[in-house]
Amino acid sequence: MAAAPALKHWRTTLERVEKFVSPLYFTDCNLRGRLFGDSCPVAELSSFLTPERLAYQEAVQQDFRPAQVGDSFGPTWWTCWFRVELTIPEAWVGQEVHLRWESDGEGLVWRDGEPVQGLTKEGEKTSYVLTDKLGEEDPRSLTLYVEVACNGLLGAGKGHMIAAPDPEKMFQGLGEDNQRSYQALYTANQMVNVCDPAQPETFPVAQALASKFFGQRGGESQHTIHALGHCHIDTAWLWPFKETVRKCARSWVTVVQLMERNPEFIFVCSQAQQLAWVKSHYPGLHARLQEFACRGQFVPVGGTWVEMDGNLPSGEAMVRQFLQGQSFFLQEFGKMCSEFWLPDTFGYSAQLPQIMRSCGIRRFLTQKLSWNLVNSFPHHTFFWEGLDGSRVLAHFPPGDSYGMQGSVEEVLKTVAKNRDKGRTNHSAFLFGFGDGGGGPTQTMVDRLKRLCNTDGLPRVQLSSPERLFSALEGHSGQLCTWVGELFLELHNGTYTTHAQIKKGNRECERILHDVELLSSLALARSAQFLYPAAQLQDLWRLLLLNQFHDVVTGSCIQLVAEEATCHYEDIRSRGNTLLSAAAAALCAGEPGPEGLLIVNTLPWKRTEVLALPRPGGAHCLALVTVPGMGYAPAPTPTSLQPLLPQQPVFVVQETDGSVTLDNGIIRVRLDPTGRLTSLVLVASGREAIAEGAVGNQFVLFDDVPLYWDAWDVMDYHLETRKPVLGQAGTLAVGTEGGMRGSAWFLLQISPNSRLSQEVVLDVGCPYVRFHTEVHWHEAHKFLKVEFPARVRSPQATFEVQFGHLQRPTHYNTSWDWARFEVWAHRWMDLSEHGFGLALLNDCKYGASVRGSVLSLSILRAPKSPDSTVDMGRHEFTYALMPHEGSFQDAGVIPAAYSLNFPLLALPAPGPAPAAAWSAFSVSSPAVVLETVKQAETSLQGRKLVLRLYEAHGSHVDCWLHTSLPVQEAVLCDLLERRDPAGPLPLRDSRLKLTFSPFQVQSLLLVLQPAPS
Ligand SMILES: [Zn+2]
User: Fold this and answer.
1) Which of 37, 53, 197, 781 is the most buried (most CB within 10 A)?
2) What is the pLDDT of residues 960-1000, one digit of tens each?
């Protein structure tokens, strides 16, 4: 059997099989060529041509002249007589012997004066059996005549050979829309794979494949449709969250009735949050759902808290979707989900397969890629391979819907559109009113029941996800594999729409990260500290809720956006309170000079300029160094260090109004309107801005989609590009230099919208920051900022969850240009060998790189379904980092983390500690310690979970060092279940870990009992 499934190409597969049995092509290695064992040329071949149709006796008297195999004869309607002298080798005794004769004319073989066989190539008669079995005494030499009518040009025979069984040619005449024809073709293709013409012992394997195919009786290969009752309820969209609670109740009460009346009816239900709402608002209904879950009629699927967006949430947030979801399903329904369920989400991160698998899920269902505007996705059932190589089985219901109604038309469409005919013979059919709820009806159930076994239609079963996926897994040997992200070629505006929601999401992901880390450290260091587990669960669930696929995407109504804004505000304020409490506990009892603690929540040492609060609300800048995941005392005003050996920042304004900022690492030059005319890496003198171009160029596009206003930005918006030009003389020096230098300017974007920006360069910092404030009052406009780089590369790199991936910078194929607007997390990079330019951001997600131009998407102005979206004031920061070498070696990843996780200056209740302290460090820059939290399984206990990932795309060994009192360390999965392999060796507070590219690993650390 072939090791890997074949490519999915009808024509090449068909022609491959044809060539394998071709008498014309590749006969040196194909089956036809080896059908005949030994061969030898005819002893002598001669011919004569005549326009007459002579009798045999007359013809054989004529003057025959020598002829060669391959000669041509004619003209048309003449006759060519051949005399064929044969000498059969001695060795062929006991074998079947043929004369093989291939000519374009119609031939007749004469033997001993009698016609014995017709020979026509078109009629596939190219062989005359001289004897079934050559006897010892049979004559070895004989003379035959072949009379050939020249109905065209002639070839000539190739000698006589020994025959083997003929291969089946079963694929001809079958169409491409037929399940059976694909099965036939793939069977034939497999036969070619297993059949070695030189090794007859392989033939029975091929014959067995053919027998299996022919052995299927009428109807056995009939497609099976697994009809699953479903009700897609958007957790908030054109209605607020509160209304969804009632939608769930209305829909599921109906479903309960249907389940009662139809014991064979199965309903699949996703989104733990909706079930949690029903549990608290309608406990009776929840109890009924639990009953039907026991009977197997109510099947929870998905495993996540909500059906989240598949692009924007961070890697850790995606993990939490499963962690919160699966634990809820386990607690309420006795088991976890085995299918990831995201039918309506706008694209799927390449890290999802790894996250799914580590959360106990190997199956995935969606249908959204059928919405692709440009390219039709090539599979409905396939293996999806993620960034790290993890594979899951993915299924897209071929009917391209999650809200079918059970019509015959939909059933037929499901079969006809299946792009994996001949590879799988099962597909899902999701029926029930969706989006706003409603769900299946008795009419739909009745319709589908009638189709269980109807002539001319596929078999329809009321089925379960388990039965569907088991059937798919049972015949997965021929499935193809898709590697990398599942990019939706539509809804690309959702990376940008509703900037405040995006900002809230990014900030709250940061706050929860910091709260968990500091609370974990406080737990480890203080016997009195209580880890705020319940509060953190609340806050996480709130954040996860807003990552629903119509909220964080910005495709919701104003009411929902307002609720989301409140949720983020809630997380911010409660999070900050928790942060202060943890910081206070962390340094309690440590004597120090001043009540201020500088905290670094990232796992590496940082030296940065920080604004320290001073009495009276003032601030002063200080250069501070803080170890990884730890703290340092705040420098006192008298102890503010001299900058040496760092070069201070120089700020120079020229007479033409341009400003140069220089910190000895990079030199930034802004023209009098604030655009970037030069960005130089000082050490190498290397210029990062393309020759003759300017960076930090704001551009405005017309942004009128075809239909889905908040969702879609169309390719043609690129044709309306208008640079926003400022006025000379608006650029001014802000901070004078020293610790920090800056310049600022105002820019009128349009009569209604304006922005102001401060361009900031700090001592020792490898990137320049652009603090931006925009007052935005537009309709159907798209604002971006562009940086043409002096870098050439066919690919750019974009950060995604726990890693990064490349996308093309050109529009060669339709798959390339369909990605004219893409998403990224905290950074993107365009690098050639030895040099590159990275663009970092603190709350943006939309991006693109075309040619050498890096572009960050800033604000949109759609008017539906929320006419007020994005109107008003916005504040955000992006940064630019030129670098030598690769972005990995240059430290682009930690720089982007730094921009997103500022050092914290937290008030301590008493004196702050006098010495710096670090909880964790990792020996390899390729490995990021992303998360430190308390283990879910020990809410009162002293167990921590650490999440690390390999961020460079490399195989690497590293050491994790900790100063915490660790008693035991063991690997665990994302659901925090211990690795059965047992504890890891822990020596001198160090653990050795091994990573493959983009691998995510979790560690369970059991801490020693608290000091009393
Ligand atoms: Zn939806």
Assistant:
1) 781
2) 999 999 999 999 999 999 999 999 999 889 999 999 999 99
Q: Distance from the CA of 436 to the center of ligand 1, in angstroms?
A: 9
- Which among 234, 309, 344, 762 is annotated as catalytic? 344
Q: What's the token pair of residue 483?
A: 């590697």
| Number of CB atoms found within 10 A of residue 24's CB | 10
Q: How crowded is residue 733: how many other Cβ atoms within 10 Å of its Cβ?
A: 15
Q: How many whole angstroms from its chain centre is CA 271? A: 22
| Cα of 538 from ligand 1 centre, angstroms | 24
Checking DSSP bridges between strand 732-737 and strand 740-748, what pairing results, if any?
A: antiparallel
CA 588 to centroid of ligand 1, rounded, Å: 48
Nearest 5°: CA angle at 900, between 505 and 696? 100
Q: Which two tokens stand for residue 782?
A: 């798209």
| 683: Cβ contacts below 8 Å, ≥ 6 apart | 665, 884
pLDDT exceeds 90 at position 808: yes
Q: For position 610, what pLDDT does the model report? A: 94
pLDDT computed for residue 156 by the predictor: 39
Ligand 1 centroid, distance to 237 Cα (angstroms):
8
Would you call the peptide bond into 865 cis, given omega within 30 degrees of 0 as the criterion? yes
User: Got the DSSP string for 829-847?
Assistant: EEEETTEEEEEEESS--EE
What SS3 class is residue 165? coil
Q: Which residue has the tokens 């990552």?
A: 547
Return the residue matching tokens 């682009």: 892
Q: Is 998 left (phi over 0), alpha (psi -120 to 50) or beta?
A: left
Compute the CA torsion angle 462, 465, 466, 469 (nearest 10 deg). Answer: 110
Which residues lie at CB < 5 A from ion ligand 1? 234, 344
Cα(797) to centroid of ligand 1, in Å? 30
Q: What angle do CA 869, 870, 875 make, to 5 degrees?
A: 155
Closest to 783 measured CA to CA, from 862, 691, 670, 689 = 862
How far, in Å, is the centroid of ligand 1 from the Cα of 879?
Answer: 34
Looking at 253-257, 569-573, 845-849, which range is the least confident one?
Answer: 253-257
Residue in this structure with the two tokens 């693109």, named with its chain if needed: 848
Strand stretches in 309-357, DSSP E = 339-341
Query: Which DSSP state fits 494?
Result: G
Distance CA 317, CA 337 (A): 18
Distance CA(97)–CA(110), nearest Å, equals 17
* CB proximity list for 97: less than 8 A, separation 6 or greater: 88, 129, 130, 131, 134, 160, 161, 162
Whole-number Å distance between alpha carbons of 430 and 547:
24
Nearest-5° Cα angle at 73, 68 to 77: 150
Per residue in 321-349, pLDDT tens?
A: 999 999 999 999 999 999 999 999 999 99
CB 974 within 8 A of CB 359: yes
CA distances from 601 to 227, 520, 769, 993 (A): 49, 12, 21, 21
Distance 554 CA to ligand 1 centre (A): 13
What's the DSSP call for residue 426? Answer: E
Q: Name the pairing type of β-strands 630-633 and 956-962.
A: unpaired
656 is catalytic: no
Q: Are 603 and 629 in contact (CB under 8 A)?
A: yes
CA distance 756 to 778: 17
What mean pLDDT is reported for the chain?
A: 91
Where are any strands of DSSP class E within 710-788? 722-723, 732-737, 740-748, 754-762, 768-776, 781-788
Residues in CB range of 297: below 8 A, 6 or more apart: 259, 263, 265, 266, 267
C-alpha 303 – ligand 1 centre gap (Å): 16
The model's pTM is: 0.88
How far apart (Å, rounded) are the C-alpha atoms in residues 29 and 947?
Answer: 55
pLDDT in tens, 270-283: 999 999 999 999 99
Give the model's pLDDT for residue 912.
Answer: 65
Residue 802, helix vs strand vs coil: coil
